[in-house]
Design goal:
Blueprint: E1 3-9, E2 26-27, E3 30-31, H1 32-42, E4 48-52, H2 56-62, E5 69-73, H3 80-85, H4 88-91, E6 97-102, H5 110-123, E7 127-133, E8 142-145, E9 151-155, E10 169-178, H6 179-186, H7 200-209, E11 214-218, H8 231-251, E12 255-256, E13 262-264, E14 269-270, E15 275-276, E16 280-282, E17 287-288, E18 293-294, E19 298-300, E20 305-306
């Protein structure tokens, strides 16, 4: 079954005190949105609908060369369900399945999306969530399951009973829907909350109340849920992404003698048996061959290419 994606990228983060759209803030040299786009592509999506609002033109300009992206304007930010509904004119005749994700989650992994898609198919569900287990779940919607282990509800933190507050399985907002069922449910969502917004979690409740199958798979690692709602949190996301980048590079046969004193931006390619010494900075899109030695105290600017065996 064909899969498309809707990415919600219309928001602004007031806590960051910024003129930039939230999804445009960089993590290890790339805008946050770019990581989500790439994860969707690697998971097999054929088309990606990006919902933009605040700073829309800046976002569109940054990704103007993305031929698989359709831009959807959300003039007023009225909640997640409203954002998805803005895509209806593009997807009203689509009979496949639709991923719904947030554009400010750069730690997302392709394997998580593949697990979500696989579970959806195996369960023959009309909607599937990828969930996470957190030791400290405060603030997140809890996943309530019945005695058979099936999802019974998503309960927002403020609405949880004392017993539900003990639940450690939470909703990180990774959704996969049968497209037509999704829009049928979204049409029925009401803004019955303090903010008077339309929430996509209410669409899940509507689907469940109709007796249709909703599946949930625990597939999201806690690290994938690190978000950036402040400059301090953005720093933490950068650190987490840097650890992931360096780990992948070292698993490919590269020595980083002191990872804490090295910074490697996303998109760098480094050949096996290369050694990276302390106080080295490597910009995005640098290409390094095999058996090279870099550093100490070296900065490689974007676009630099080192041939096999070179030292700088």
């Amino acid at each position: 079954m064909e899969t498309v994606a809707i990415i919600l990228a219309a928001g602004v983060s007031s806590r960051m005190k910024t003129a930039l759209p939230k999804v445009m803030h960089e993590v290890c040299g790339k805008p946050m949105l770019e990581y989500v786009l790439n994860a969707c592509r690697k998971a097999g999506t054929k088309k990606i609908y990006v919902v933009v609002g605040y700073g829309a033109e800046k976002v569109k300009k940054q990704f103007a060369n993305c031929k698989d992206v359709v831009w959807v304007n959300q003039k007023e930010q009225k909640g997640t369900a409203h954002a998805v509904l803005c895509c209806k004119k593009h997807l009203k005749d689509f009979s496949g399945q639709t991923l719904v994700l947030c554009g400010d989650g750069p730690m997302i992994k392709t394997k998580t999306l593949k697990t979500l898609i696989k579970t959806h198919k195996k369960a023959r569900a009309v909607a599937t969530l990828a969930t996470a287990i957190l030791d400290e779940p405060a603030g997140y919607g809890r996943i309530a399951r019945d005695t058979k282990g099936n999802i019974a509800a998503i309960v927002e933190h403020n609405d949880c009973s004392k017993e539900q507050l003990k639940i450690k399985e939470v909703n990180p907002s990774y959704y996969l829907f049968d497209n037509k069922v999704m829009f049928e449910a979204l049409r029925k969502v009401k803004p019955n909350n303090a903010k008077k917004e339309y929430y996509i979690t209410d669409a899940i409740a509507i689907i469940l109340s109709a007796g249709k199958k909703v599946a949930a798979v625990t597939a999201v690692e806690p690290q994938e849920m690190i978000s950036a709602n402040s400059r301090e949190q953005l720093s933490e996301v950068n650190k987490a992404m840097q650890q992931r980048i360096q780990s992948e590079i070292m698993q490919g046969g590269v020595t980083i003698t002191n990872p804490e004193n090295v910074w490697i931006q996303a998109g760098v390619r480094i050949g096996a048996d290369t050694i990276i010494e302390p106080f080295t900075y490597i910009s995005s899109d640098v290409k390094v061959g095999k058996n090279c030695r870099i550093g100490p105290f070296v900065c490689l600017e974007s676009g630099v290419v080192l041939k096999n065996g070179e030292a700088v």
